[in-house]
């Protein structure tokens, strides 16, 4: 006789399961983040007297989302290629070197490493 297998939820003590909770974040599409606030902050730091149109902001947001997705997919494939279960900073750095051209990759890795170091030591 076949038994029905039910998956027990670890959060079953009167709490909602993490899967059934509604996410309340302000993103444009499901699964995509909105970087508009950060783009505006960086623009105001670089050129305080300039603004940016909403159309250009959408284009920049899409560009950042696309680059992030490409880097994460490449880093994940590098992780699987090395038969590892943990994504390491080296995987992300190698993915950046593979996807971005020359000096851009070098600067991206340098600034990214510096930002991580500042975050760790703060």
UniProtKB/TrEMBL annotation:
- Which CDD domains did the record assign? HFD_H2B
Per the record, what is one GO cellular component?
Answer: nucleus
Q: Which GO terms describe its molecular function?
A: DNA binding; protein heterodimerization activity; structural constituent of chromatin
Q: Where is this region: Disordered?
A: 1-31
Q: Which Gene3D superfamilies match?
A: Histone, subunit A (1.10.20.10)
Q: Which residues form the Core Histone H2A/H2B/H3 domain?
A: 19-98
User: Where is the sequence biased in composition, kind Basic residues?
Assistant: 1-13
Please name one Pfam family that this protein belongs to: Histone
According to its UniProt record, which protein family does this protein belong to? Belongs to the histone H2B family.
> What's this protein's name?
Histone H2B subacrosomal variant-like
Task: Kindly list the organism's lineage.
Answer: Eukaryota, Metazoa, Chordata, Craniata, Vertebrata
Name of the gene encoding the protein in the UniProt record: LOC110589700
